[in-house]
Design brief:
- This protein is α+β, with helices and mostly antiparallel strands.
- The protein has a domain of 128 residues: Sandwich (Immunoglobulin-like).
- It has 4 helices and 9 strands.
- The protein has a 6-stranded mixed beta sheet with strand order 1-4-2-7-8-9. A 3-stranded antiparallel beta sheet has the order 3-5-6, with no helix packed on it.
- It is rod-shaped, with a radius of gyration of 58 Å.
Length: 273
């Protein structure tokens, strides 16, 4: 009997322990709900995988191809992005799809293949002239901005920023390792462009113009006369006439005057024998 009671007591103790560890069904059903709400949040940080990034330009390979990552930190969506070398007169075609704009806080991978240009040297020097590049961006609100002297070759990744209407970039220089900002340079370029656009060609005193009694003359236009072929008219023939001149007697020699008065030479005028 004692063994039976001992066995019953042991079984009851096990039942009590297992009951203490039992989790209510309501608590079990709530756990997945919290987990689901946590995983539903999507990260807004730019992706770091180049395979998942959208492109600016077309993917290319080669020693002359520039490849870098850019973050759009302008606070606006960009619908047009194009690069122009100083050797080009006009901007080339848009490098992104307008239907898929480069939205704010997005990171994209830029591929730029420069046009082949001839090397330019300075006299006998072996130094090669550096071609400068300008990037023109257009926002979805149709406003535009330019990034001058874009540092291709010295940048692996950077951020495009906007202050007012002036766009600039910030990046870490591959050559020096220092952080570089083009803000001040872009502001100076914008001020110079605005000054050149508003500066008059020449200043004229309107009061002085009122005192000028100007007379204007039409510039004579020289018209070359039409060439007229000369007409040759032959003179009428005139029969020549002969005029007869009668001969005349030859003139006689006048007598010379005698200095002796007609007398013979001699003394006293008498005859001399």
């Amino acid at each position: 009997m004692r063994k039976i009671f001992a066995t019953i007591a042991f079984v009851c103790a096990l039942a009590l322990i297992s009951c203490g560890n039992t989790t209510p069904a309501a608590e079990i059903s709530q756990a997945p709900t919290e987990a689901a709400s946590t995983t539903a949040q999507v990260s807004t940080e730019p992706t770091t995988s180049t395979d998942m990034m959208k492109l600016i330009g077309d993917r290319a390979a080669g020693d002359s191809v520039y490849v870098l990552t850019l973050d759009n930190k302008t606070g606006k969506d960009i619908k047009s992005f194009t690069v122009k070398a100083e050797t080009e007169e006009e901007y080339p075609s848009n490098m992104i799809d307008e239907k898929d704009p480069y939205v704010k806080n997005e990171r994209r991978l830029l591929y730029y293949v420069p046009n082949k240009v001839s090397d330019v040297t300075y006299g006998d020097s072996e130094a090669v002239a550096t071609v400068e590049y300008t990037i023109k961006i257009e926002f979805t609100d149709n406003k535009t901005a330019e990034l001058h002297q874009f540092p291709f070759g010295d940048i692996d990744e950077g951020e495009i920023k906007l202050e007012g209407d002036v766009a600039y970039i910030e990046y870490v220089s591959k050559e020096s390792g220092d952080k570089v900002s083009t803000k001040e340079a872009e502001k100076a370029a914008a001020e110079l462009a605005a000054q050149n656009a508003t500066e008059p060609v020449s200043e004229v005193n309107p009061e002085a113009n009122n005192n000028i009694d100007a007379q204007y003359y039409e510039e004579p236009v020289y018209t070359q006369p039409a060439y007229v072929e000369p007409v040759y008219t032959q003179a009428p023939y005139v029969e020549p006439t002969t005029v007869y001149v009668a001969p005349t007697d030859a003139p006689t020699q006048a007598p010379t005057e005698d200095p002796n008065g007609g007398c013979l030479a001699g003394g006293g005028g008498g005859l001399t024998w």
